[in-house]
Amino acid sequence: MRRLEIAEQNRFLLLRQREFRIAADVITDAWMSFPDVHAVAVISSVAKALWKEVPRFSEFRRQGIEVWHECRDLDLALWIDSQQELDGLRRAAARALRAAFERGAGTSVVSQQLDMFLIEPGTDRYLGRLCEFKDCPNVKRDCATPGCGAIRFNKVIADFKPGPIFSNRRLMRCCMSAGKGGCVRRSIFRTSRRAFRVSVAPGNGASRSKLRKTASGRVI
Predict the structure, then answer these.
(1) How far is residue 161's CA from residue 164's CA, in Å, rounded to a whole number?
(2) For the chain, which residues score pLDDT lower than 70?
(3) How far, in Å, are 15, 82, 105, 106, 148 from residue 109 at the CA level?
(4) Relative orientation angle of helices 3-31 and 86-102, to the nearest 10 degrees
């Protein structure tokens, strides 16, 4: 396989992570107006520096060629004080993603590519998933799982056991958190092939940006 093909695949995989990070910012902005939202964080591979591995693609796998890890979806942790507005949160995320795509914000992520974990503030107890379906209850096969829809738009995944990621802050990147001083918004996105994070302190509106790219091109 030619080096150009490998480089092109690596470029695509980095851009894919970039799209998911932009989508995380877009959704967080949409959720900040909900008073029950306590915090939002990106988890899984979208939140981390990508690493090289032999991928699932047969043309690379057969030759043992390593490329950047593939981000397949966007995992978001949502700390929420109440589950009364789950449908509103679902609709807000879908509308925000559609609007971002239409205005050319740099992401084509759709709501079917989201995995949104509902977490209890204070205890980090896993509550369920935010369902992407328009109606609840629904006749979809996923909806037949015992307990699914007992709380509208709280999706139950059979046999799912959450790991320590929701209580381990080193495994995630916080997009927004609420506290006594107000909301703190942290943006994760890439532009001009560089990655940086902007933190906004409550009350002063000032922003600080920090470049987060290594010499090898790894985004961190």
Answers:
(1) 10
(2) 165-171, 178-220
(3) 12, 27, 11, 9, 25
(4) 130
Alpha-carbon distance of 188 to 76, in angstroms, equals 13
The Cα–Cα gap between 8 and 178 comes to 40
pLDDT digit string (tens) for 44-84?
A: 899 889 999 999 888 888 899 999 999 999 999 999 999 99
CA distance linking residue 153 with residue 161, whole number of Å: 19
**Cα 45 to Cα 69: distance, rounded to the nearest angstrom:** 8
Does the pTM surpass 0.70? The reply is yes
Would you say 81 and 38 are in contact if contact means Cβ atoms under 8 Å apart?
yes
Distance CA 141, CA 148 (A): 11
* Count of C-beta atoms within a 10 Å radius of residue 25: 23
Nearest 10 degrees: CA dihedral of 133, 178, 16, 219?
A: -160
Tell me what pLDDT residue 59 has.
86
The pLDDT of residue 201: 28
